[in-house]
Adenine phosphoribosyltransferase (Cellulomonas chengniuliangii), 182 residues
Amino acid sequence: MPAAALRGDALITRMHELIRDVPDFPSPGVGFKDITPLLADAKAFAGVVEEIASRVDGPVDLVAGTEARGFILAAPVAVALGAGFVPVRKHGKLPGPTAAEEYALEYGTATVEVHPFTVPRGARVLIVDDVLATGGTAGATIRLFEHCGAQVVGLSFLVELEFLHGRDVLAGHRVESLLAVS
Ligand SMILES: O=P(O)(O)OC[C@H]1O[C@H](OP(=O)(O)OP(=O)(O)O)[C@H](O)[C@@H]1O
Ligand SMILES: Nc1ncnc2[nH]cnc12
């Protein structure tokens, strides 16, 4: 029997309680948002999946989750929406052929990859991840799907770190975040 999902203010209050702030992880000066306690709470986990799915505007064919934490949220959202799931993986994890997109990190670059044969031209794609920080990962994920001929119809995050202005990188796209941290 599934747990009753938390909704509305009760969900947001519980998210504040359950998302852990970890100072100086993984490097000095970073305030890391740890969602593992939220995932372990059946009612809160069900609530965030339901809330992300409820904010979608129009039909979605595929929900994309970015390795690794994006997988955890995107897969149940895909099931809730009756859509397929596409894993967006870091370089070298998917057997070819792959489509790839590079993005900037604080130092150096990283690459995200997808199996293009799982993304039909014109597919309507929702991108889901736990945290929107600089927007580098999400921006590269948008480009990846656009190069496959798909249409990114929205992006949803649990937490948006507003002070890093990631939303600016995603200008022109519909961006939803359940919690904003300023
Ligand atoms: O907006 P950005 O500055 O790009 O940061 C956000 C990304 O960083 C985290 O993933 P990370 O690369 O740490 O990988 P993980 O999920 O495997 O921990 C997070 O899950 C997002 O994907
Ligand atoms: N502060 C942060 N907490 C969790 N994940 C992140 N990804 C990028 N910045 C992050």
Q: What stands out?
A: The helical segments are 8-18, 36-39, 42-54, 69-81, 136-147, 166-169.
